[in-house]
């Protein structure tokens, strides 16, 4: 008889959670083409506000007025999500377990869904209202992602973790699906409908999450005795992990060159990926002159290819790592970096020397090759510090999302000053590729793939000495008390 494993259902819910997070994260990239007038310019650089019409493919007769935002305002909207994410992620990485990760995810997802439904109204009300909504949605995502990892940690035994990697595929699946779903919305309806759909889906998922998921197996009302016994015997305790993360030797970590090389590696990787997610639909539709549907499909294509190629690479490497009969290749991780960073960066960067504007073929090949770096950062964190991997990975993720803030402002400033022309965007894409190339080159020189000495250090708990009232038969009235974190 077929038995439904509760941990499998929780894996499915986490997959859908990541899927919806990334739809909410990047749907503005497509909808902004139809909701804002940002590209029509005269020769003197002034926006042409006459004869403003909606893009082809929307329903005629019910056209909404375009919102007149300049390039810097659009850049601020793109950066707002990453600002909220960077603020919230480190907070909930540590306190999510204390508050209850299930409720953190449910409430944050519900809030994000409601705000998605309110996005069209906030856009028409004022720019800063939409900017604030985007920050809060990024804040909600920053609470959800580490909390979902904490839930998965309680439900998946170490021996099964490689089998649950598909749950994280919701990230890439949600990324490429976003552009296809938004293109369909533009074909059949109007841009506000896209925000309503994503909002309703996230609210529905959040309600279902609270019904299906619990923090730990012992709290689940429908888990079988067989599965509960199995999880109890195989997972054990995670107290040691929490304790070690709280005692991370940050002074030694921040002085570590390999740590900063890994931060730079992930910064360049995130820079290239986020740049295409944010500006891909705009670039293909307004600069290369594809329809909005073709532009969305072309933006989605490399992320679908990344999912396929990345899955093959991860499974092949996992097979190689556990097959002791094969000869070990020294510094094999750095060969992955050559494929994921150095080669893609060179492919686009060299177009700077030729009268060629990077097109769909070149950008698709380059971004697809970055699949060799999927899951690479987390593995390198394990290589450097198995003890403090969660703490180090948190910092690296924050650094990666900071790239979304910086590149948005950089692109907005450049396009505002030099206009949205093919030549300008050629310089932009070559610069993106240069960042990717340099980040990989830096790690090849200064990066390490072995355990660092600070992995075996830990900060000693702070000790507070207090004076107590004297007691009979006690020779000294001074006692040493260790202050514990009770939060």
From TrEMBL:
The record's GO molecular-function terms, alphabetically, read: transmembrane transporter activity
Which segments does the entry list as coiled coil?
none
Membrane topology qualifier: Multi-pass membrane protein
Q: Which residues cross the membrane?
A: 7-25, 78-96, 103-121, 127-144, 165-187, 193-213, 259-284, 290-314, 335-355, 394-414, 426-447
GO CC aspect terms: membrane
InterPro entries to which the protein is assigned, alphabetical: MFS (IPR011701), MFS_Na/Anion_cotransporter (IPR050382), MFS_trans_sf (IPR036259)
Q: What GO biological process, any one, is recorded here?
A: monoatomic anion transport
- Which Gene3D superfamilies does the record cross-reference, listed alphabetically? MFS general substrate transporter like domains
Q: Which UniProt keywords apply?
A: Membrane, Transmembrane, Transmembrane helix
> Where in or outside the cell is it found?
Membrane
Please give the SUPFAM superfamilies that the UniProt record associates with this protein. MFS general substrate transporter (SSF103473)
Task: State what protein this is by name.
Answer: Sialin-like
State the organism of origin.
Galleria mellonella (Greater wax moth)
């Amino acid at each position: 008889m077929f038995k439904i494993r509760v941990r499998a259902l929780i894996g499915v819910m986490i997959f859908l959670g990541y899927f919806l997070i990334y739809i909410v994260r990047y749907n503005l990239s497509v909808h902004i083409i139809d909701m804002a007038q940002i590209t029509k310019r005269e020769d003197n650089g002034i926006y042409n506000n006459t004869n403003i019409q909606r893009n082809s493919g929307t329903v005629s007769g019910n056209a909404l007025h375009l919102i007149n935002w300049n390039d810097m305002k659009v850049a601020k909207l793109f950066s707002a999500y990453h600002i909220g994410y960077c603020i919230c992620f480190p907070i909930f990485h540590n306190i999510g377990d204390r508050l209850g990760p299930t409720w953190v995810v449910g409430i944050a997802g519900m809030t994000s869904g409601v705000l998605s439904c309110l996005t069209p109204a906030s856009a028409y009300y004022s720019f800063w209202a939409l900017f604030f909504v985007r920050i809060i949605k990024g804040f909600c995502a920053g609470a959800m992602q580490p909390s979902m990892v904490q839930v998965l940690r309680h439900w998946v035994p170490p021996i099964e973790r490689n089998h649950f990697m598909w749950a994280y595929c919701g990230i890439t699946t949600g990324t490429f699906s976003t552009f296809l779903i938004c293109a369909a919305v533009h074909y059949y309806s109007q841009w506000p409908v896209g925000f309503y759909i994503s909002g309703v889906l996230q609210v529905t998922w959040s309600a279902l999450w609270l019904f299906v998921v619990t923090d730990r197996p012992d709290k689940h009302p429908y888990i079988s005795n067989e599965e509960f016994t199995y999880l109890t015997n195989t997972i054990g305790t995670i107290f040691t992990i929490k304790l070690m993360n709280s005692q991370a030797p940050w002074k030694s970590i921040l002085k570590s060159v390999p740590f900063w090389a890994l931060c730079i590696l992930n910064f360049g990787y995130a820079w290239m990926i986020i740049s295409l997610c944010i500006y891909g639909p705009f670039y293909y539709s307004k600069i290369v002159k594809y329809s909005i549907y073709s532009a969305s499909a072309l933006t989605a294509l490399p992320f679908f290819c990344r999912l396929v190629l990345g899955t093959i690479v991860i499974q092949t490497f996992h097979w190689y790592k556990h097959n002791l009969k094969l000869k070990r290749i020294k510094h094999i991780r750095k060969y992955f970096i050559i494929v994921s960073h150095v080669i893609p960066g060179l492919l686009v960067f060299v177009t700077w020397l030729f009268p060629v504007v990077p097109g769909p073929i070149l950008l698709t090949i380059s971004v697809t090759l970055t699949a060799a770096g999927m899951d690479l950062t987390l593995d390198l964190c394990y290589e450097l510090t198995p003890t403090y991997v969660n703490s180090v990975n948190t910092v690296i993720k924050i650094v990666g999302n900071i790239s979304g803030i910086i590149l948005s402002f950089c692109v907005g400033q450049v396009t505002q000053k030099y206009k949205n022309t093919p030549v300008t965007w050629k310089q932009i894409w070559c610069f993106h590729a240069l960042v990717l190339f340099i980040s990989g080159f830096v790690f090849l020189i200064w990066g390490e793939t072995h355990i660092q000495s600070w992995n075996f250090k830990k900060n000693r708990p702070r000790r507070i000495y207090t004076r107590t009232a004297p007691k009979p038969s006690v020779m000294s009235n001074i006692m040493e008390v260790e202050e514990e974190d009770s939060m």
